[in-house]
Amino acid sequence: MQWLEAERLGVADLLEDLTEDEWRQETLCAGWTAHEMAAHLTTSTRTGWRDVLTGVVRARFDWERMEDERAHTIAARFTRSELIAQIRETAALPRRAPMASRIDPLVDFLVHGQDVARPLGRVRVMPPDAAEAALAHVMKSPFWGARKRFRESGIPDLPVPDLLMLATGRELSTPGDNTVGNSNVCST
Q1: What is the mean pLDDT of residues 34-42?
Q2: Within a domain: 184
């Protein structure tokens, strides 16, 4: 929980530090700016069974579509400062979305912090212990699809933060390449 609280507050700091132009830049998640990402991150402590059931039915049982629609709806409803305040207010809460394990919110914040920072050329350091725990979880959880990804290509010899990004469906860019919008699995 300490790792999660620190990550939530760190991502809130990152979001708060963005310029207005950076706030509107696309993240590594196709179709999501930092605004939509912040909206998505507010849901980890505010999603209940009713939200999941009604959302997935509305999205025709497409989890990615449900999360995308929800992020855009929340982003349209709340300002930048309101979203950042919501992340800060819930930083220490252990509550999580239905079906999420205790470590899934940590994975979300570690990865989504990178989704925002990397295309902007910002460096966001992942704490080694938290990143290793998140990677271990992602590698054994069927939800994230990491085993399938690495079964096809093998596990590359990379630092843990980069492995975590690959394991959660992100492509790594080369230095100086601020590629955005290259992931279609960002709602997880």
Answers
A1: 94
A2: no
